[in-house]
Design goal:
- With 211 residues, this protein is mainly beta.
- It contains 1 helix and 18 strands.
- The protein has an 18-stranded parallel beta sheet that branches.
Length: 211
């Protein structure tokens, strides 16, 4: 009897852990603040209890993080943006993504003076990153248009970008032989540092650029 009871406890614990691991929190509103619980599918602002944060609903909506956004809502596991915009407006605490940041079709992320820290890979596929200020730290590979037929754009006009331990891949998957799409990265101000930068790949007619 005790053995069955213990097995039931273990099974319940594993099922609860699996449910937590697969918890997705999706943006459901139009324009709004990141920390507003009513804007999210779980009726909760983002946190580490979510396995993934998705800003992928239809429409060109803008989600804003600023000085009023509580720090506990700014550390998350994964973030995917599609067809919408996320802007950082001088938030007092960093937006800290522990795993992956992905920008897909028509996605835009704008840093107007906040701090963005991504521990895992960053992929800009069919999207745009605009850095006009603030600090941006990428702890792994940062790729722009890394897959065939994809397009990605990064505009850097101020602040700092550090790709500390990975490759900044422009039109590739972080390797010279990777079949990438077309990426355009323009730096007209601020500071950009990377362990290595690879522009284009071995595909004939590769037209990516780093200006």
């Amino acid at each position: 009897m005790k053995t069955r009871f213990l097995a039931a406890i273990i099974l319940s614990t594993l099922l609860a852990a699996t449910a937590r691991a697969q918890t997705v929190n999706s943006w459901i509103d139009s324009n709004g603040k990141w920390e507003s619980s009513n804007n999210w599918s779980r009726a909760l602002a983002p946190s580490l209890s979510d396995s993934a944060i998705l800003i992928t609903n239809a429409g060109s909506n803008t989600v804003t993080i600023d000085n009023a956004t509580p720090p506990p809502n700014l550390t998350i596991s994964n973030l995917t943006i599609n067809a919408n915009t996320l802007q950082l407006v001088g938030a007092s605490s960093p937006l800290h993504i522990l795993n992956q940041l992905t920008l897909n079709t028509s996605a835009t992320l704008i840093n107007l003076g906040g701090t963005l820290i991504v521990a895992g890979p960053v992929q800009v596929n069919q999207g745009m990153l605009n850095f006009t200020g603030g600090t941006n730290q990428m702890g792994s590979t940062f790729t722009v248009a890394s897959t065939a037929n994809s397009t990605g754009t990064v505009n850097f006009t101020g602040g700092s970008l550090f790709v500390t331990s990975g490759t900044f891949g422009i039109g590739n998957d972080g390797t010279i032989g990777g079949t990438g799409g077309v990426a355009h990265v323009t730096v007209s101000g601020g500071l950009v540092q990377a362990a290595s930068i690879i522009v284009g790949d071995t595909t004939a007619g590769s037209s990516s650029s780093f200006t």
